[in-house]
Specification:
The chain has about 475 residues and is of the alpha/beta class. About 35% of the residues lie in helices and about 20% in strands. It starts with a helix and ends with a strand.
């Protein structure tokens, strides 16, 4: 689902008739992609327009270098009366300053009930977020500006469609929010952690990559169509044809499979997801939490197709009729490791005594809060008691409410971290010192279970077969886990 397909579909769905595009000669779309029949007003603000530029859509408002001139001022210089738009598309120069100026300026030009579409909000690779322009593949730090913008502006709601480098959709105050679509502000603890991480170029993108789902309200194209564009099915073929993107029969949406996974196994599901989607034609919707939190969500009635958690938790849900009896399949196991900030001296943890000394010597120690239901946090708390050092460690504990303990290590909030190895390996700003000594090591096994109310049991079984099969083994090892024997 490309950016102009989203613009056109939203305009049709909500009868949005006044359109503004904010772009540069390099980022602006071709006029042919914007359906002219939908709009009574079609305006374009372009930065640094060359004299020879012409793609068929006039430049209504010429503007100086991106980030140096407020978009509202540029528009009023040509059109003194206050213009308001129903839908605004923003794809300008991708520095932080230019992006934040454009986003706040665009919101002030949006009428109540209007919608903004913002390109390049979800870069999937660090190579796309460099400061230097790369033609054809440059997202810059638009993703960071977008997050800061929605946190500060507090629109009615927002989400990012996970396609075409991420297309942000911002609903202004007064806009009807799509029922069932997550459009809310992220949890306050995550906002606080983002504010700390964004200040450092070394931590900004790694933190974003780990928490993009919550920060962006990331949604698959299929789910966005289903929830935000409910009447678009009948005319989807026409829109797709105009974009050269017809895939199969018109109006047919790829079935979705919802996967709830414990955090430690999430990276493996994400890595193997494209292989499953390509083979099955289904779309995966992946959400993660601690094992305890997932169990509570499922018991409270949250729908899902496949769950990945500890075997005991799967069996307990099967006993309550939430998971199909006999569907449990072991996937992998992972041990607990110790980490420090990248570049810091590595403490000796080769023996139990050495590990105790390292923990006691650290100025601060972080692990998952046992109260959150994370299996590693529960084990570490009991281990410290067993080793007789719990009371000495307690005043310097920095407990993490789910997610990555490595966030605290990377930001410098904690000196030493203890977490499952698979949650340490992906984090560039943290270094794995090593696993716990064998005498005190604890392995957590993860297993998959199929929902007792899954809409398509065969599709769910196919995913579990992939996750437990030989194709998954190298991916699981790469993520710091061992495939189940």
């Amino acid at each position: 689902m490309e950016k102009f397909e989203i613009v056109n579909a939203l305009a049709r769905e909500r009868n949005l008739r006044r359109y503004l595009e904010i772009c540069t000669p390099l980022t602006g779309g071709k006029f042919a992609f914007v359906d002219p029949s939908q709009f009574a007003v079609r305006h374009r603000l372009m930065y640094n327009r060359p004299d020879t530029f012409d793609d068929g859509m006039p430049v209504t408002f010429p503007c100086r270098s991106p980030g140096s001139e407020d978009v509202v001022r540029a528009i009023h210089a040509v059109q003194p009366e206050r213009e308001r738009y129903d839908i605004i598309f923003v794809d300008s120069f991708h520095t932080y300053r230019a992006s934040i100026v454009d986003l706040h300026g665009a919101l002030s030009l949006l009428r109540p009930g209007g919608v903004m579409v913002v390109h390049d909000c979800n870069p999937d690779d660090p190579s796309l977020v460099g400061a230097a322009f790369q033609e054809g593949s440059w997202c810059g730090v638009t993703y960071g500006a977008f997050i800061d913008f929605v946190l500060a502006a507090q629109p009615a709601g927002y989400c990012v469609v996970d396609s075409d480098y991420g297309c942000g959709v911002v609903f202004s105050q007064g806009a009807a929010l799509p029922a069932g679509l997550s459009t809310a502000r992220p949890p306050q603890r995550l906002v606080f952690e983002w504010v700390l991480a964004r200040e450092d170029d070394r931590t900004r993108f790694p933190f974003f990559a780990r928490h993009r789902q919550e920060l962006l309200n990331l949604v698959s194209p299929a789910r966005f169509r289903q929830l935000a564009l409910p009447s678009a099915g009948s005319d989807r073929a026409v829109a797709a044809s105009a974009l050269g993107a017809v895939r199969s029969s018109a109006g047919v949406q790829a079935p979705e499979l919802k996967v709830l996974t414990a955090g430690a196994f999430r990276s493996s599901v994400v890595a193997l997801g494209p292989q499953y989607e390509k083979a099955s034609g289904n779309t995966l919707v992946i959400d993660n939490d601690t094992v305890g939190a997932l169990a509570k969500r499922i018991e409270a009635g949250e729908g899902f197709d496949v769950v990945v958690m500890t075997p005991a938790a799967v069996d307990e849900l099967a006993g309550k009729g939430k998971v199909l009896r006999g569907s449990r399949v072991s996937l992998a196991q992972v041990g607990v490791g110790v980490m420090v900030k990248a570049g810091a001296p590595l403490p000796d943890i080769s023996t139990v005594d050495a590990f105790k000394k390292a923990v006691l010597a650290a100025k601060s120690v972080s692990f998952i809060d046992p109260a959150s239901g994370g299996s590693s946090g529960i084990y570490v708390a009991k281990l410290l008691e067993r080793l007789g050092i719990a009371d000495q460690v307690k005043p310097k504990e920095k407990l993490k409410q789910g997610g990555y303990v490595a966030d605290y290590i990377e930001s410098g909030e904690a000196e030493l971290g203890i977490h499952q190895i698979s949650e340490i390996v992906p984090v560039q700003g943290a270094t794995l010192v090593g696993p716990l000594p064998a005498e005190i090591q604890n392995y957590t096994t993860y297993a998959a279970g199929i929902s007792a109310s899954a809409e398509d049991n065969e599709a769910a079984k196919a995913l579990v077969k992939l996750l437990s099969g030989p194709a998954a083994a190298p991916v699981i090892k790469e993520k710091g886990m061992e495939p189940a024997s």
